[in-house]
């Protein structure tokens, strides 16, 4: 039955090459932890992606309850944390995932760096990777404000002060992020929400697509 | 891609008919060196096992340590000592050194992080030699080790000088009382001395029960205030009838969260 459906679609759209290309790519011996235990260092990138997927899914569930508004943001998080079934688990996964993704990404970066895997012809993929690093740090910074509790507000104030200290364009950057040159308030929360939920994830997905396409095109770097 | 004469298509689309198409069979890995294997399904299964083990650890962490939530943001609390999330601590700590803060703030906030992250981004163009082994690229590896050491040191310095006890206390969620202390009834409650036994939050104490959620009507409350009940002697309330009415109304409506 499933085969017939597959054949029916394949006859019309020729879908076989689309997925066989991914399915058939060869995994060399030196990156396979089943053959060399030390190859577990090649898992860091995949685990970073795994946590990223978890972050996207748990974040989608969080927005079912979260209200990006200074009167209700904290209340909605408190409700989610204490009243909603599994709310504590979903929020916990998003909270700890934010830290874990940075740890795994850091390890992945070090693996690529110390193996010199960024050398010709993989320079562009390294640059895209560093951009992904910045996007993830940005997600961490903007997400930290959203519960609208004391540490969120004051950590954000400090972060915005640092942004403001940039010469010439500091105030403009701060205004762009916070919605006002001096006040950290209602506008800041909605802007951080928009940046955290729409702008940065959009950029992240584009960069991840580029990252993976380049890996598929070039293959993984050879053994040292 | 095959193109040209003799090609048959499905209807008027660009899709080729089955005999001209890529067959749906795995390719032959025997040509590849060593123990090369297919991504699907051989290697992906192993990746899933690693992912599953990781996920178990991740969920244990989530269950063992519920994510923190401090009290609602209060911008007027100027005594609050801020601290960014742990992965920004090294940048934050950098701004506490003499030549990276105050008049030199630009150095700590822009120049040093800019150089470090700029060098990271442009690493392939700085470290241009043909060698990949760490031992053959002493400068690249040396600078990276230095940067890692600096990040660990700064994070450590920041975390060890922070007063975690005070930080925990300053952010604690304080249970809010639903008692309106501005109301006239509360003022009478305070002035008549009820407060000394029943407490400022009406929660009672060693010598008196709570006055929250009594379920009594104002008339019953007024009666008890005048005539006493249990350990409470008669004649405790000595104010005017007008005040008694306000007090009775207030206590009758007093409810916990």
From TrEMBL, chain A:
<feature type="transmembrane region" description="Helical">
    <location>
        <begin position="126"/>
        <end position="146"/>
    </location>
</feature>
<keyword id="KW-1003">Cell membrane</keyword>
<dbReference type="InterPro" id="IPR048259">
    <property type="entry name" value="Cytochrome_b_N_euk/bac"/>
</dbReference>
<keyword id="KW-0812">Transmembrane</keyword>
<dbReference type="GO" id="GO:0009055">
    <property type="term" value="F:electron transfer activity"/>
</dbReference>
<keyword id="KW-1133">Transmembrane helix</keyword>
<dbReference type="GO" id="GO:0022904">
    <property type="term" value="P:respiratory electron transport chain"/>
</dbReference>
<dbReference type="GO" id="GO:0046872">
    <property type="term" value="F:metal ion binding"/>
</dbReference>
<keyword id="KW-0408">Iron</keyword>
<feature type="domain" description="Cytochrome b/b6 N-terminal region profile">
    <location>
        <begin position="5"/>
        <end position="224"/>
    </location>
</feature>
<dbReference type="InterPro" id="IPR027387">
    <property type="entry name" value="Cytb/b6-like_sf"/>
</dbReference>
<keyword id="KW-0479">Metal-binding</keyword>
<dbReference type="InterPro" id="IPR005797">
    <property type="entry name" value="Cyt_b/b6_N"/>
</dbReference>
<keyword id="KW-0813">Transport</keyword>
<dbReference type="GO" id="GO:0016491">
    <property type="term" value="F:oxidoreductase activity"/>
</dbReference>
<feature type="transmembrane region" description="Helical">
    <location>
        <begin position="193"/>
        <end position="215"/>
    </location>
</feature>
<feature type="transmembrane region" description="Helical">
    <location>
        <begin position="39"/>
        <end position="67"/>
    </location>
</feature>
<dbReference type="GO" id="GO:0005886">
    <property type="term" value="C:plasma membrane"/>
</dbReference>
<dbReference type="InterPro" id="IPR016174">
    <property type="entry name" value="Di-haem_cyt_TM"/>
</dbReference>
<feature type="transmembrane region" description="Helical">
    <location>
        <begin position="96"/>
        <end position="114"/>
    </location>
</feature>
<protein>
    <recommendedName>
        <fullName>Menaquinol:cytochrome c reductase cytochrome b subunit</fullName>
    </recommendedName>
</protein>
<keyword id="KW-0472">Membrane</keyword>
From TrEMBL, chain B:
<feature type="transmembrane region" description="Helical">
    <location>
        <begin position="138"/>
        <end position="156"/>
    </location>
</feature>
<dbReference type="GO" id="GO:0016491">
    <property type="term" value="F:oxidoreductase activity"/>
</dbReference>
<keyword id="KW-1133">Transmembrane helix</keyword>
<dbReference type="GO" id="GO:0005506">
    <property type="term" value="F:iron ion binding"/>
</dbReference>
<comment type="subunit">
    <text>The main subunits of the menaquinol:cytochrome c complex are a Rieske-type iron-sulfur protein (QcrA), a cytochrome b (QcrB) and a cytochrome c (QcrC).</text>
</comment>
<comment type="function">
    <text>Component of the menaquinol:cytochrome c reductase complex.</text>
</comment>
<feature type="binding site" description="axial binding residue">
    <location>
        <position position="198"/>
    </location>
    <ligand>
        <name>heme c</name>
    </ligand>
</feature>
<dbReference type="InterPro" id="IPR009056">
    <property type="entry name" value="Cyt_c-like_dom"/>
</dbReference>
<keyword id="KW-0408">Iron</keyword>
<dbReference type="Pfam" id="PF13442">
    <property type="entry name" value="Cytochrome_CBB3"/>
</dbReference>
<dbReference type="InterPro" id="IPR036150">
    <property type="entry name" value="Cyt_b/b6_C_sf"/>
</dbReference>
<feature type="domain" description="Cytochrome b/b6 C-terminal region profile">
    <location>
        <begin position="29"/>
        <end position="156"/>
    </location>
</feature>
<keyword id="KW-0479">Metal-binding</keyword>
<keyword id="KW-0249">Electron transport</keyword>
<dbReference type="InterPro" id="IPR051811">
    <property type="entry name" value="Cytochrome_c550/c551-like"/>
</dbReference>
<keyword id="KW-0349">Heme</keyword>
<dbReference type="InterPro" id="IPR005798">
    <property type="entry name" value="Cyt_b/b6_C"/>
</dbReference>
<keyword id="KW-0472">Membrane</keyword>
<dbReference type="GO" id="GO:0009055">
    <property type="term" value="F:electron transfer activity"/>
</dbReference>
<keyword id="KW-0812">Transmembrane</keyword>
<comment type="similarity">
    <text>Belongs to the cytochrome b family.</text>
</comment>
<dbReference type="Pfam" id="PF00032">
    <property type="entry name" value="Cytochrom_B_C"/>
</dbReference>
